[in-house]
Amino acid sequence: MISEIQKKKCVLLLSRTPAPPISGYKIKTYNLVKILSELYDLTVIIVTDEPENNENIEFLKKHSKHYLYFTFPKWRFYWNTLKGLLFSSNPLQVSYYKFNSVHKKLASIIREADIIVPSLTRTTEYVLNQPRKSNSVIIFDTVDSYALGYARAISKTKSFLWKNIYSIESHRLHKYEKEIISQANASLLVNKEETEYWKKYGNSLLMPNGVKEELYNYDLVNTPENAIAFFGKMDYPPNIDAVKWYAKNVLPFLPAEVKFYIVGGSPGKSILKLENQYKNIEVTGYLDNPYDLLSKCLAVVAPMQTGGGIQNKVLETMALGQVNILSSLAANPIGGVDKKDFLIAETAEEHIEFVKLMYSNPLLRNEIGNNARNLIKQNFSWEKNKKSLKEIVEEQFANQNTKN
């Protein structure tokens, strides 16, 4: 336990409420808040278009010394974006979250902080142009490189609107992320390939997400339901693209009795319509405990066509001991071995083959599931992240003191 006297002042900037932890990013920030509050004297600053909720208020009261919450009507965010598009070269999402009134209010807080942690590119503008202590440390919680993710998405997405947004943003983001990573003392990413890419511009370090310890207590069902599942927040464009691709290209060629569960909160009209188009699709929406259902399925699929970074839901289902059939885009950040820890399927034919294989070969299914669980246990731990983050911050303070 670190005493109050020893604790340095840390400021964490977020664009989403960490609680309730119902999406991959919220799970990450929920745990990051808990880690930072154990190590430091933590102030949490949230600039968001989300309404405040009681669970988040109670969580921040418990896990921070101070917190500030800034929200505005939606039109203010859209107005910021339009101004950014016409009058700025900054990424649109940076403009979306940039309010001059907030910038002024944060000046004294940033100036007095020892450690400043902007999370995601969109919060960094509040840090880059603020005066701060000469020996303060900036730890850029990059998570995913939006610049690289958007560049990949341009050729993959079918939406004309999103194709144009990705095209504009990818160029702006690359220039902006390059600047942030070069200025930050350390930048933390969850994807090994993206971490390696940004090393030429700054101190980019790999820090993958963790999973809930209780997931290791689930047993994989020996006689699973004749079903497969996709698990993820369903208002996230890469998840929408993946599910639509699977429903169109894979599901019609599986045995008619195979059910496809789409598990995750905030499904939009285009996802809900799939239930009417395909009799063997069930859209569950948000479930308080999705793991009972997921552990009973034949396999979980993540046929990601766009996006980047680690899919938290893939980590969670692997921790369950479930077989994951993944595109290489979803598999590569995890660092496992194809056909040992998961199954990589790039084509519809490969997806069909692997689903049938899991049905016909329960021994192989159990073997891959156990390997998956062991891989996650060894490499994806929030406790391990706490230790790594503490070491990174201490090293950067030592470097700063040497310079000064």
From TrEMBL:
Q: Would you tell me the protein name for this molecule?
A: Glycosyltransferase involved in cell wall bisynthesis
The protein's matches in Gene3D superfamilies, at most eight in alphabetical order, are given as:
Glycogen Phosphorylase B
Q: Which UniProt keywords apply?
A: Transferase
The answer on whether this UniProt entry bears the keyword rRNA-binding reads no
Q: Which domain of life is it from?
A: Bacteria
Instruction: Please give the start and end residues of each transmembrane region.
Output: none
For this UniProt entry, the molecular function terms from Gene Ontology, in alphabetical order, are: glycosyltransferase activity
Can you name the source organism? Moheibacter sediminis
